Amino acid sequence: MKHLPSLKNLYYLVHLHQEQNFNRAAKVCHVSQSTLSSGIQNLEEQLGHQLIERDHKSFMFTAIGEEVVRRSRNLLTDVDDLVELVQNQGAPMTGTIRLGCIPTIAPFLLSRLVRHCQHKYPELTLLLKEDTTDRLLGALGKGELDLLLLALPVDTQGFHSMKVGVDPFKMVMHCDLKDDVPLPIDYQKLPDESIFLLQSEHCITGHAISACQLGDSAKVNPFAATSLHTLVQMVDSKLGTTFLPQMAIDSGILTNTQLCVFDPPGEAPYRDIGLVWRQTTSRILTFRTLGLEIQGLLEQS
To answer: Taking Cα atoms as reference points, which of 283, 244, 282 lies closest to residue 260?
Structure first.
């Protein structure tokens, strides 16, 4: 009979790969560095292959080590899903959900979602992480997150998605400037470099450019903001205009500013809001139920 590797040792290996440092990995795993090191050595002996090349100062994963890490991540994720399935049998809205969300949604929706779930599903715990779309999708694929709340469309190949709402785009500018801009707004009549956008890693920039059919890059200011709040500050200083999602406006992002809201040119540009999860998860009922709750919150806005 084959000696099967310990899940604990696979866990040590995955976190060593993630941290690229024995001391940090041991702290994450809540064990001593010697325990983690011996566990990985035991794993190598069980598998009969070297997973890590070591010298007295550094280490690197072998090719087979990289493959073992990849498969171990999937295996550990499946084990977590199995435990959740058994523990939550007959009670889908219990347990813990590690939820990732992008910065252009998180500040305007997550607090309401958490309060709503605390009231309606007191045995459900939401652990929140805010990051960019690409990094969140990577974490979901590695099993570090269970569920994502994103702006669609994005490349969700290998994942399931559920649309939960529609978020229109609006243009905002200082009210003192509105008389200088003929309505309806014509992008070509705006000054060059007068449109402010977020940094490219924020998907709302691509969504806004696409949805609003903003094709003239000369109109876009080279300054790229890190957050919607920064965009609001720039535009409130009479430097130009920008696009904001309706949910941010409804949440009061324009409070204490002198900004006016306009409809962008075109046919009511918008972004879809959706949930994304792994195809292999056993918690589909949980995620779909949570999706319906988010849909209800968005409709209340």
So the answer is: 244
